[in-house]
């Protein structure tokens, strides 16, 4: 037996057990506005190459996802909060906080009005469309959501914008019907040129129009063709935007007078992501007007705000 006071010589230090690889974790959820990883293999449908239905099992998978879609949990496209409403793209807080959501607007061009009276935009420019339905101002945070859709390929943003714009359009349709207007018979996404569609891989206006049509139960169609590539409107002075779009749109052969296909309905809606001067929508509406369409409504997710207006204003 060792003496109680005997010093015990320490042995070699215990070795740590070999490190084990941590279990694989699911990647963290991306912020709704975080740029998506670049994917250079997008098809004209807007889907990455890895998601194209090139095999039967992939087509079955996509069909199953479409069937389950109404019951899958959704997140607000702006803040990521869980959505409690099925037909919503934004949570209630973000929806109520949209810039210019309740702004007094010109019925013709959708521009903000400082007070009741003639619209300065319409006073200077004539439009081939009759009315404009607007979700909100093109300002933070809505501009970031549109940018994520348009330039980063986050197509979920298109669905969110379409669902939220549908809320406004459904109210607009009720007012239009009460005033004796024709119901909208066709939604038409403003088309891109072939070169721009190949470069981007999808049409952001089509992404918005698809969700909009599903929610409002309006058919989608494309009687317009972007006949030539044009310079980006955002880089041009206001005076040059209309000339840049001269003869940019033509009517598809199936919809020309005398074609076997049915004629265009009396009231159509042109869908676009952002309206600045209205030059693009005017050029497209002009072709439809010449084809005999009686009523044309522009439907946009965002409208730029005139510098003389405050950032946010409510209808009185």
Number of domains: 2
What do the pLDDT scores average to? Answer: 79
Q: What level of helicity do the residues show?
A: 25-40%
Number of helical runs?
9
CATH fold-type name of the largest domain? Rossmann fold
Low-confidence stretches: 1-54
- Envelope shape: globular
Report how far the terminal alpha carbons are from each other. 96 Å
CATH architecture of the largest domain: 3-Layer(aba) Sandwich
Descriptive report:
There is one protein chain. The chain has nine helices and six strands. It is globular and about 50 Å long. With 316 residues, the protein is of the alpha/beta class. It folds into two domains: 57-97, no CATH class; 101-303, Rossmann fold. The strands form two sheets. The protein has a four-stranded parallel β-sheet, sandwiched between helices. A two-stranded antiparallel ribbon has the order 3-4.
Task: Write a compact overview of the structure shown.
The protein has 316 residues and is an alpha/beta fold. Helices cover 30% and strands 11% of the residues.
Main features:
6 strands; disordered N terminus; alpha/beta; 9 helices; Rossmann fold
